[in-house]
Amino acid sequence: MGAEPDECVPERPVRRRRVDWREWAPLTLLTLAALLGGGLWLAGLRTAAQLVWAAVTLAALVPATWATLRQLWRRQFGVDVIAVLALVGTLLVREYLAGAVIAVMVGTGQALEGYAQRRASRDLRALLERAPREARRCTPDGAIELVPLDQVAAGDRLVVGPGDVVPVDGTVEEAATLDESVVTGESQLVTRAAGEQVASGVVNAGAGFGLRATKNAAESTYAGIVRLAEEATAHKAPMVRLADRYAAAFVPFTLLLAGTAWLLTGQFLRAVAVLVVATPCPLLLATPIAIVSGLSRVARRGVLVRDGGSLELLGRARTLLIDKTGTLTAGRPRATETVVAPGADRDDVLRLAASVEQLSPHVLAAALVRQAHERGLRLTEPTDVTEEPGRGVTGRVDGHLVRVGQLAGEPPEWAQRVRERAELAGRSTVWVSDDRGPLGAILLEDPVRPDARRTVRRLREAGLSRLIMVTGDRSRTARQVAQTVGVDDVIAQCSPQEKVDRVKEESARAITVMVGDGVNDAPALAEAHVGVAMGATGATASADVADAVLTVDRLDRLADAVEIARYARRIAVQSATVGMGLAVVAMVVAAAGGLPPVAGAFLQEGIDVLVIVNALRALRGGLRRREVPPETRELLDRYAGQHGGVRDVLARLRDTADLVATRPDAPECVPALREVHRRLVDEVLPHEAAEEQQLYPALAGPLGSDEATSTMSREHVEISRLVDRIGGQLAQHPAGRLRPDELPDLLAALYGLDAVLRLHLVQEEEDYFSLNPADTPPR
Description:
- The protein is of the alpha+beta class.
- The protein has 4 domains: 6-10 and 133-231, Calcium-transporting ATPase, cytoplasmic transduction domain A (Distorted Sandwich), CATH 2.70.150; 22-122 and 235-295 and 565-619, no CATH class; 334-445, 3-Layer(aba) Sandwich (Calcium-transporting ATPase, cytoplasmic domain N); 630-771, nmb1532 protein domain like (Four Helix Bundle (Hemerythrin (Met), subunit A)).
- 56% of the residues lie in helices and 13% in strands.
- The chain contains 27 helices and 22 strands.
- The strands form 4 sheets. A 7-stranded mixed β-sheet has the order 10-22-21-20-11-18-19, with helices on both faces. A 6-stranded antiparallel β-sheet has the order 2-1-3-9-4-7, with no helix packed on it.
- Helix 1 (25-42) packs antiparallel against helix 2 (46-73), helix 11 (308-316) crosses helix 21 (556-591) and helix 21 (556-591) runs antiparallel to helix 22.
- The two termini are 31 Å apart.
- Keywords: ATP-binding, Cell membrane, Membrane, Metal-binding, Nucleotide-binding, Translocase, Transmembrane, Transmembrane helix.
- One of its GO terms (molecular function) is metal ion binding.
């Protein structure tokens, strides 16, 4: 389906962000009035100036007193009571200029807080503003109707016009160009091929396309994000509550110091001076600004945190429990290798299996079909398809009966070796058979995310000292994943209740974060201090109970969130400590008579502006990861896309090595060697050379130095040496026969190249391609 007619795509007006002057009006009027009083004073009209300053003081005192009384009525005792006492004191001692300065100070602090909150919550508001309300649904007769979003059901066929927001989660029916920045935080446009899943909330940046809904609106990704956004904007930052609790000690200390100065000297003016410099704007305003700024930044990184309390806890966390499936791994099986019977063709076996599995809803069937499409195989529509749960699918393809699933009967010798190899590697096996017996086996695995190992390292650097992987998978598979990503401990074959018990145990020792993506993870997420759900791929139940949701399917954004949370909390504490420390020093000086109310008011104004500006630093900085320039991203995309072809050559290399090891006298042995050597020379070596010349120099900046790629360059040299070694062996046998005494050396080269090249590809994907903030490359 292409773009729909113009009448199906309503024109969207361009919204411009306008300044709401009402938000700045109180500060503007107070400042102008205070300046007017200064002008009258300089003009010699001192009585008029005093009246203007007194009016400014009253203008600030009335709303502040009302707000304080409301707090007291709700049995909340906050430090803002000091500001009210200071304003009252300046009126009593007729220090109207000091009162006016305090009024402007309070107004400035509130205006700066409002500015920071508006800037910090801009991304959250954008989510709410972009929430779709209607969808274009195709009717059975081919027409298009505009329906309310709540009427869309899974299975409906929708049309997404240019500029439209994708209304529900679904599968695109043709290639689509999307702007996913609102959900993922990334500005680059993304192209989704036909059949790929698309999350609701992204924007169509190209021509119109068809969408097959897989979820209704309430269960879609965007609805969960919007719910979290509404909750996040409705909560109060934790440091504000901390300030109110701190008032229990700070307010009595301030009143005691002010009363002592008055009693010892008999000068009420000193008490007022103490109250003036004690106005606690650093704690009331600067710390919430830092926390809310942190909320905004993690939202832009694709992590939506429910409230400031969760962000503060994330910044203090020391223990991380992380589920394996869908979190450290991709969460869906992927066909990694096709092993065929002697004389069978690899592509034909995969084509037969995928053709039969086209109609099956099983997750393994989707993996086979996806692998066949990636290899460009043309599938045939099967007939007489039957599926036996737990055993497999049977059908006819091109007139031949094909069975896909478990292997019936005693396996031949080659099949037994495949089974043993799969068990050792922790992979699942799908057998493809016909009436004569097994044709081949397709090995599937849930691959480790390329960014998982780098993310674990960054989480340790951010301060998480204990990382534990929990999974319901088998012990062997769990240990392999744990060794790959580098966690401290692994708990395998873990039930949902056991996950909850382990979270409770760890939470008793330290502040604990739990990360998961499935319905079975929801109880553990709810039990942790901070539960983080993989919202881009996870179940709604997990996202609903989580304190934070990763809206993009990248684990490294969790490391971003932890680093930003620690940075924002550090700035918040720093602002409060420095600001209140300076205020206490000024209070002592004022009590000793060295700081009159007017001077104290100006000094406190300076302290407040200083700490609030410092708190605004939380809007940027704190991330250890370096940004990747756009031109380097393009190179990463290009070479990541070429890895599929290299892996195909690698599979042929392994098959050829096995053929040489088991049947060196077979007539097809040397031709297979020559073919795989040709592909190594024509496809793999040019790929490695281009990386050496273009990609590795471009990575010097993001990685910190040229030395960061030196080990990978050394692997390039070893790959080239082994290819030349295989070529040298072939050059000695123009007649096409292999001598027995040469087999050990040839096999060492073949299997050595297989191991080095596999390791090389994995290292590139983990250390280099994971730097790309776009979608994680396939493994």
